[in-house]
């Protein structure tokens, strides 16, 4: 899909640019759904404002809520980067909305104001959110992206490109507070969490139940140490940092079948 920016030129002066863009993309996406069921089409020349705010099924990378397309030269892939974007089975952890700039970026130029601002793009998952922070000053390139919990914001100096995971929903009881972060080695960590609820396991115990998509290192916060953690009814080894309340355990890559896990943390 090329030369989409011509829509702005065609609509100039006719008071129909917005409607023209909307109709164009509605027809384009309908055609893609019909003729390319796997949505295997690359959208280029579509980075004008109208296009970015209109597209839902087609955008870019980790906070866009969209498919991911790689155009690296064969043999020159950065697999360490790609593994943070794509799960081993080829699926990705998609956010729910089109990625959008934060309010403080709307009336600033994060490419030319001499390091006074950074480009920040936000999105939401089912139970949390994600913010991508990019140093676009000058050439608009970035060299390193870190996946990090939002609680560490105050410890990080500005100017470094980051992905921040935002914990939106927490579970609490008289005994503990728990907030799940997700697959911490993925850029959109929280996109792995598909269901979250708490309940009584017995008269003495309470538990947090999650449905998780994907594999790798899973991270969560809890105000007290869990007694047990089970994945698909099997006990898993976990680490708990007393000082920070950070819990980590590994969801292994399945030999075959589903990448979905039923997780129970018993307190």
List the topology elements.
Blueprint: H1 6-11, H2 17-35, H3 49-54, H4 79-82, E1 100-101, E2 119-124, E3 128-134, E4 146-149, E5 162-167, E6 171-172, E7 177-183, E8 193-200, E9 206-213, E10 216-222, E11 228-231, E12 234-235, E13 239-240, E14 246-251, E15 260-266
Parallel strand pairs: 4-5
Antiparallel strand pairs: 1-2, 2-3, 3-5, 6-7, 7-10, 8-9, 9-15, 10-14, 11-12, 11-15, 13-14
Protein described:
Keywords: Carbohydrate metabolism. Pfam families: Raffinose_syn (PF05691). InterPro entries: Glycosyl_hydrolases_36. The structure is a single chain. The protein has helices at residues 6-11, 17-35, 49-54, 79-82; strands at residues 100-101, 119-124, 128-134, 146-149, 162-167, 171-172, 177-183, 193-200, 206-213, 216-222, 228-231, 234-235, 239-240, 246-251, 260-266. The chain is of the alpha+beta class and 267 residues long. The strands form 3 sheets. The chain has a 5-stranded mixed beta sheet, with no helix packed on it. Strands 6-7-10-14-13 form a 5-stranded antiparallel beta sheet, with no helix packed on it. A hairpin with a 2-residue loop joins β11 and β12. It is elongated. The model is unreliable at 139-163 (pLDDT under 50).
Gyration radius (Cα, Å) is: 21 Å
Largest sheet: 5 strands, mixed
Number of strands: 15
The residue fraction in helices comes out at 10-25%
Model regions low in confidence, pLDDT < 50 over at least 5 residues = 139-163
- N-to-C SSE series? HHHHEEEEEEEEEEEEEEE
What's the mean pLDDT score? 76
Note the gap between the termini.
52 Å
Given helix and strand content, the structural type is alpha+beta
Question: Percent of residues in beta strands?
Answer: 25-35%
């Amino acid at each position: 899909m090329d030369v989409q920016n011509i829509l702005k030129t065609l609509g100039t002066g006719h008071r129909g640019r917005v409607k023209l863009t909307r109709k164009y993309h509605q027809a384009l996406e309908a055609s893609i759904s019909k003729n390319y069921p796997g949505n295997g089409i690359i959208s280029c020349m579509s980075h004008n404002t109208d296009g970015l705010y209109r597209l839902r099924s087609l955008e870019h990378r980790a906070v866009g809520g969209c498919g991911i397309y790689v155009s690296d030269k064969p043999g020159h892939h950065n697999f360490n980067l790609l593994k943070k974007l794509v799960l081993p089975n080829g699926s990705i952890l998609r956010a729910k909305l089109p990625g959008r700039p934060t309010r403080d970026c709307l009336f600033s130029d994060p490419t030319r104001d001499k390091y006074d601002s950074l480009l920040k793009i936000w999105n939401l998952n089912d139970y949390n959110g994600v913010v991508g922070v990019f140093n676009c000053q000058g050439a608009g390139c970035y060299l390193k992206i870190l996946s990090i919990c939002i609680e560490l914001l105050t410890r990080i100096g500005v100017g470094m490109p980051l992905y921040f995971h935002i914990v939106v929903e927490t579970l609490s009881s008289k005994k503990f507070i728990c907030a799940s972060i997700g697959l911490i080695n993925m850029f959109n960590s929280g996109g792995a969490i598909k269901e979250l609820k708490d309940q009584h396991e017995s008269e003495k115990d309470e538990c947090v139940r999650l449905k998780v998509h994907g594999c790798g290192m899973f991270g969560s916060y809890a105000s007290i140490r869990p007694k047990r953690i089970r994945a698909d009814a099997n006990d898993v080894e976990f680490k708990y940092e007393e000082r920070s309340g950070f819990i980590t355990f590994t969801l292994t890559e399945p030999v075959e079948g589903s990448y979905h896990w039923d997780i129970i943390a018993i307190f």
